[in-house]
UniProtKB/TrEMBL annotation:
Signal peptide: none annotated. One of its GO terms (molecular function) is heme oxygenase (decyclizing) activity. Gene3D superfamilies: Heme oxygenase-like. Pfam families: Heme_oxygenase (PF01126). One of its GO terms (biological process) is heme oxidation. This is Biliverdin-producing heme oxygenase. InterPro entries: Haem_Oase-like, Haem_Oase-like_multi-hlx.
Amino acid sequence: MNSTETMASAGQFFLQSLRSQTSDSHKKLDSLPASAVLMTAELTSEAYTRYLQLMYPVIKWAEEQAYSHLPQNIELPGQFKRHKLILKDLDFLRSKPIQTHFTGFETTSVAESFGVAYVIEGSSLGGVYIAKNVKSVLGYDENGGLSFLIGNGNTTGSNWKSFLNSLTGFAVENDSQGEIIKTATRTFEAIYHHLSGFAE
């Protein structure tokens, strides 16, 4: 096995570890009423608006603070503008962000910023599927109400793969797998506590 194959193998092992070790925190977050209702036929405009309002400070924190140590040439599925898309959707819904404080944390390294980005940018994949239900139940679409969830639409998957290549390359080359996994788990938990704190 040459060095390229070794790196690729190490990268795949890291991704498997990242997914498995954050799985419980991820599932716990998805099970919260504020999140789970998005995929049901019982979804209301009020519940959807509330979700966007709660997620706004989370995404804004990530894009304006937590991502500060990412490489300058990094390509993200959300292109650092997803919090602005939430504002666009809230405006369409004739609403606005509410005064909710998200207790995030300071990132102090590239690895920690990558850990946060794995969670936040990964949510864009789920957003594409959630958008289909929101469109079916509430009638919103790319022209109004679904900007945040749709994001880059058909290119989301390829953008995500590009991001994962950057993530795994950095992790393996810098032996920072553990730090990334720890930060990703911490991010899932922080968002969980934020959303559960505002459960209706």
